Every structure is written in C-alpha cells, then in structure tokens.
C-alpha cells in the first residue's frame, strides 16, 4: 500500500520551545488516521506544519511528501493545489462572508487527476443544511454549520489528503457522530484523512489507525482496534470521557 | 436665506466630503490600514492636475485622469515601502510613517510648486445653471453624480463580486485567507492604490472650488476623519450618509449661524453622535 502522505522527522519550535519533536506520520491512501493527545501535546502544531501554515511564527524542520512529491517550502495554498488541504482548528471560515462567498473563495484547481472535485451540488448533497443557509453570513451560523462550511471549503479544493483539526470542537455528540460518519464515507470513496480529534469514542470507532501524542512526541501508534485495549489510551484519553 | 439653495449647497459640499473620504473608508474598513498622508495626497493631486494644465497644456478633462493615474502609481510605491509594516498590521508605526510621508510630500510640493496660491480652474466651474432663485455649477452636478456613481459601483464590487469577497476576507483574517490561496499583500496594494486614486479624483472635482496651496490638506483629512467615524468605520454606505449629513450641516450652520465655526460645530455633532451611537450612523 502506498502512503498518500508522509511526514518525516517533523520538528517545530516556537522560539526556544520545542512543540513537536521529530515526529513521523504516514497516511495510507484511502485511509483515516486519527491523532489524539492531551491539550498542548502538539497536535495542531504538527498538522499545521504539514500544511505549511501557522498563525504564529514557528521554525519547522523535516520533510513532507504528498504521493511521493516533496512539499517542503511550498506555501499552504500551493500544497492545497496539489491536494494537501487543511481545515484548521477553531475559526475556519470568514464570519463576514456568506456561506456561498466562503465556498466561492476557493478556486477548484485545474488539475485534479485522481482526486474528486466536489461541485456545489455535491456539497449540498453532503450537507443539506448548508443549502438552506447559503445566503447567511458566517457569524449567523451555528458551530456545527460553521464546521460544515469549513469542511466543504476544503472539499471544494479537491483534496487527496485532508487534514482536519478538531472538527467537532464544541459540537453536540449527535452532530459529531454525523460529521465524522460523513467523513468516513468520503474516506471509503478514496479520500485520505488525517484527523485530530478529542472525541475519543467517535474517533476510535471510525479510524483505521491511531497516533497518541505526548509532549511533542508519538508515544503510541497502532491499528485502532488494538488501541481500544491499550491501557495508555484508556488512561490518557478515554479516562476523561468515560468519567 | 433660501432653504432649497442651502440644501443644494449641502448636497454638493457633502458629496465632496464623501468623495474625498471614500479612500480612507475602504482602507480602514477593508484592509484595517491607515494613511495619514491623505490630506497631502489631496493637495498633491490638485497640484499635479494644475501642473499638467499649465505645463503640458492639456485640458482639465485630461489633467484629472492623469493625476488619478499618477497618484495610483505613487500608491504602489508608498505601499511597497511600507510592505513589512502593513503585513504586520502595525497601525502605530503606519500612522507615524504615513504622517512622515505627508510632511515629505508637502515639503516637496512647496519646493516644486512654490508657496503661492494657484488657480486650478475647471471649465465646468464657470458653467452655471440658474433655476429661478436657485444656482449651481456643472462642476457641482458632476461631483454629485460622480460621487453617487463611485459609491454605487464600489458597494456592488465590495458586496456582490468575488473580488469584493476577497478584500473582505483579507480584512477579517489575512492568515486564514492565505489558506485559500489569497495573496494578502496584493490585496493591500490594491486597496492602497484605490485610496490614492480616489483622493486624486476627489481633489480633481473638489479642489477647483477655491485657490490651491501647497500647505493645504489638513482640513481635508480632518473632515475625512469625521466622515469615516461618523459613518461607522469601514461602512461605504455610512460614509456616503455621513458625507451628506456633514455637508448639509455645514451649509445650514454656515447660513444660519456663522461659517467661521463650522468645523468646531461639526466635531460637536460627531461627539454627540458617538455618545449616542458609538459605532457611528451605520452601526447595526
Ligand atoms: N503560536 C504559538 N506561539 C508559541 N507557542 C505556541 C503557539 N502555538 C502553540 N504553541 C505551543 O506549542 C505547544 C503545542 O500546542 P498545540 O496547539 O499544537 O497543542 P494541541 O495538541 O493542538 O492542543 P489542543 O488539544 O489544546 O488543541 C503548546 O505548548 C503551545 O503552548
Ligand atoms: Mg490543537
């Protein structure tokens, strides 16, 4: 099996602080890889570094390959053109733009060989609610609807590998399940997905493989089925949810 | 006092205020940038148009577009110099730097064009219309219609086109815009060029009303602040409303009380409005 995404030896520093310390990640084609870890473990820093984007000014080292092609040094939108698309943590859409304007900002890339280019119709089939909200500004949407717009925006860019950072933050459990199941459906149709998620149960049920991060390092990497029995996961991660 | 005549005067004055201010409105609202050389750019544009007419012998109708073009190019140059500050959205430094530009522009203009008042004459200023008791010039008509057109087109572009959505996205979150492949630096240049070109158009239409001086510009920038703040920062429609409101107030206050205190009175109105509606007239 070929890896769609390979990140090798990623190290990210903020000033003197090492937030990500030599992490390797691989996302096989058509698979869903989950990444979990406590607050501050470095998940967002890592996924942003893979996308070549950040709100801060980190120093990034390591190598990122998309289907074997080197991405290092490319700005985020050049990586997106090649199919490596990020939905960042938190605010992923423009509050002062309508749903349609948010989605229309993305120009689907010219060359989408081997990738699915989502039309507006595809998007509205996937998220019927957005069709009704298309004229609404971002700030008038619910948290769940905002996430749908953020994900849709990424899909408009015809991702080969989608990087999703906590899409379910602040959503009701039923919505989380709905959103992640939708994502799983896309993976089953060929998308490769790297998912950072705090919602343990939903994640474990859906992903093919799971990484556990602690203080900037990968401390466990296993098939999801095995991770369910891993005491480190149970303690570090499921503990606070089953409580 | 003829009330209808004062209303006409107010509309003409107000469209001038709004036109001179529109660049600042867009700059601040759409790009969160400031340019305190605004008044000196107004002065420079008037002198460039005047010089084109005097030295190149071109007509007013060629001189004004030339000066708009020249100021647009100057906008690219100024923005190029401030690129780093702009990308960091460092408003305090931008304020100081643009104030500095203003002084440099003013000094250079005094050196090149001299310190004497000059007549920047528009042929439309001499073509007047008399309707019974009422009186206005074709310059007034062009200023009013031009302002309304520019505001209309600008509103449509900002709110109804992809380009407008692009500008608004950068204003809201340049970092996020980067993820969409939007080049914030280019958007900033575009907005800055618009500001410079718009103030040149304002100068071309408004400055012929009175003699031009290399030392002018302060009143223009002060009135621009009033319009921008009164209208609600960044609101295109609000600026138009505020411009007309201020023009009307100035005309009526000048006629009823005294033209000498209109600026002070205008600020009094501004302060009152801001106490009642801190977000300006257009605030939601
Ligand atoms: N812009 C920044 N500047 C400086 N340090 C930062 C910045 N962003 C993150 N960090 C630091 O990097 C470390 C990792 O943060 P990161 O946001 O990647 O964690 P996370 O695993 O995504 O946490 P969470 O679950 O809360 O989202 C933290 O110690 C944080 O303080
Ligand atoms: Mg995070």
TrEMBL record, chain A:
Matching InterPro entries: AAA+_ATPase, ABC_transporter-like_ATP-bd, ABC_transporter-like_CS, BCAA_Transport_ATP-bd_LivF, P-loop_NTPase
One GO BP: L-amino acid transport
Gene3D superfamilies: P-loop containing nucleotide triphosphate hydrolases
Pfam families: ABC_tran
GO molecular function: ATP binding; ATP hydrolysis activity; branched-chain amino acid transmembrane transporter activity
Domain of life: Bacteria
Keywords from the UniProt entry: Amino-acid transport, ATP-binding, Nucleotide-binding, Transport
Domain ABC transporter positions: 5-240
Record flagged with keyword Ribosomal protein: no
SUPFAM superfamilies: P-loop containing nucleoside triphosphate hydrolases
CDD domains named in the record: ABC_TM1139_LivF_branched
Family per similarity comment: Belongs to the ABC transporter superfamily.
PANTHER family in the record: ABC TRANSPORTER ATP-BINDING PROTEIN, HIGH-AFFINITY BRANCHED-CHAIN AMINO ACID TRANSPORT ATP-BINDING PROTEIN LIVF
Protein name as catalogued: ABC transporter ATP-binding protein
TrEMBL record, chain B:
GO biological process entries: amino acid transport
Transmembrane intervals: 6-26, 58-78, 90-114, 134-158, 179-201, 221-244, 251-276
Keywords: Amino-acid transport, Cell membrane, Membrane, Transmembrane, Transmembrane helix, Transport
Location of this chain's protein in the cell: Cell membrane
GO molecular function, one term: transmembrane transporter activity
Pfam families reported for this sequence: BPD_transp_2
Membrane-related topology note: Multi-pass membrane protein
Domain of life, per lineage: Bacteria
A GO CC annotation given for this chain: plasma membrane
Principal subcellular localization: membrane
Family: Belongs to the binding-protein-dependent transport system permease family. LivHM subfamily.
Name by which UniProt lists this protein: Branched-chain amino acid ABC transporter permease
């Amino acid at each position: 099996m070929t890896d769609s995404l390979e990140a090798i030896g990623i190290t990210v520093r903020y000033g003197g602080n090492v937030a990500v310390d030599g992490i390797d990640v691989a996302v096989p084609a058509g698979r869903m890889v989950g990444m979990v870890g406590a607050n501050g473990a470095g998940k967002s820093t890592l996924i942003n570094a893979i996308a070549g984007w950040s709100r801060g000014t980190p120093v990034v080292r390591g190598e990122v390959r998309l289907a074997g092609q080197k991405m290092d040094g490319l700005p985020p939108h050049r990586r997106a053109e090649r199919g490596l698309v990020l939905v960042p943590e938190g605010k992923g859409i423009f509050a002062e733009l309508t749903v349609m304007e948010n989605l229309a900002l993305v120009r689907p890339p010219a060359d989408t060989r081997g990738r699915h280019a989502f039309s507006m119709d595809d998007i509205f089939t996937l998220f019927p609610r957005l069709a009704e909200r298309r004229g609404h500004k971002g700030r008038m949407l619910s948290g769940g609807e905002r996430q749908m717009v953020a994900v849709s925006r990424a899909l408009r860019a015809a991702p080969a590998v989608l990087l999703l950072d906590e899409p379910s933050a602040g959503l009701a459990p039923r919505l989380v399940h709905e959103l992640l199941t939708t994502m799983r459906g896309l993976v089953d149709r060929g998308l490769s997905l790297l998912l950072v998620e705090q919602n343990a149960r939903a994640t474990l049920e859906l992903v093919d493989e799971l990484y556990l991060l602690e203080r900037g390092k990968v401390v466990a990497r296993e098939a999801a089925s095995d991770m369910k029995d891993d005491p480190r996961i149970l303690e570090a991660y499921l503990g606070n949810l089953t409580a | 006092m003829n009330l209808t005549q004062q209303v006409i005067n107010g509309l003409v004055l107000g469209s001038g205020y709004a036109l001179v201010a529109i660049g600042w409105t867009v700059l601040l609202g759409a790009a969160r940038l400031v340019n305190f050389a605004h008044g000196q750019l107004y002065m420079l544009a008037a002198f460039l148009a005047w010089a084109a007419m005097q030295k190149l012998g071109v007509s007013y109708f060629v001189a004004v577009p030339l000066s708009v073009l020249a100021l647009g190019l100057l906008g690219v140059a100024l923005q190029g110099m401030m690129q780093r500050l702009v990308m960091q959205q460092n408003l305090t430094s931008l304020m100081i730097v643009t104030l500095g530009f203003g002084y440099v522009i003013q000094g250079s203009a005094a050196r090149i064009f001299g310190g004497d008042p000059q007549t920047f004459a528009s042929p439309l200023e001499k073509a007047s219309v008399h309707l019974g008791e009422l009186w206005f010039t074709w310059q007034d008509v062009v200023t009013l219609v031009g302002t309304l057109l520019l505001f209309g087109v600008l509103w449509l572009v900002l709110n109804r086109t992809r380009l407008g959505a692009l500008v608004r996205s950068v204003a809201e979150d340049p970092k996020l815009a980067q993820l969409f492949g939007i080049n914030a630096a280019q958007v900033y240049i575009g907005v800055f060029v618009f500001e410079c070109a718009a103030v040149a158009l304002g100068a071309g239409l408004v400055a012929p009303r009175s003699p031009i001086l290399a030392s002018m510009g302060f009143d223009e920038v002060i009135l621009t602040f009033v319009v921008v703040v009164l209208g609600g920062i960044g609101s295109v429609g609000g600026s138009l409303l505020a411009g007309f409101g201020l023009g009307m107030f100035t005309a009526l206050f000048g006629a009823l009380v005294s033209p000498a205190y209109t600026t002070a009175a205008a600020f009094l109105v501004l302060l009152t409005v801001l106490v009642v509606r801190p977000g300006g007239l257009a605030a939601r």
